[in-house]
Amino acid sequence: MGTANSYNDLRQHIGHKLECVCYGEKKKDPHNVAIECVTCGEVLLDFDHPEVTAVNEKNGFFPVTCVTREDIATALKDRKLHGKIKKLTDEEMREIAKRMGEYFCESGHYWDFLRAFVPDMLKGV
Ligand SMILES: [Zn+2]
Predict the structure, then answer these.
(1) Per-residue pLDDT tens for 64-106?
(2) Which of 29, 67, 88, 89 is deepest in the core (most CB within 10 A)?
(3) Phi, psi of 34 (to 5 degrees)
(4) pTM of the full structure
(5) Where are the domains of the chain?
């Protein structure tokens, strides 16, 4: 979603170097475009290609979760690593998220959760 959602959010970046960048495969429509503050290394505003979400959901794929640098810092309590975690690139974060997704699906917790949670939800349907 990006971090700039208000006057005060954006105000912090006055005079900074901003760039409009895109993510995706080369020679294809980018799946995401973003305005980033190069000075802070922050995504201020970004949009997914409207078809990406629509196609995923049409095919029956709904995103499970997202992971943040803060999550990683919380998980790895070693303070010495926190500086390095902050410097993880968006590319590296995507790789971590992808591996987490794969791991989660392979581990039993995925199915345990569905078995434990969904039947209660279905009662109300
Ligand atoms: Zn900035």
Answers:
(1) 667 788 888 888 888 888 888 888 888 888 888 878 777 777 7
(2) 67
(3) -145, 150
(4) 0.46
(5) 1-60, 64-125
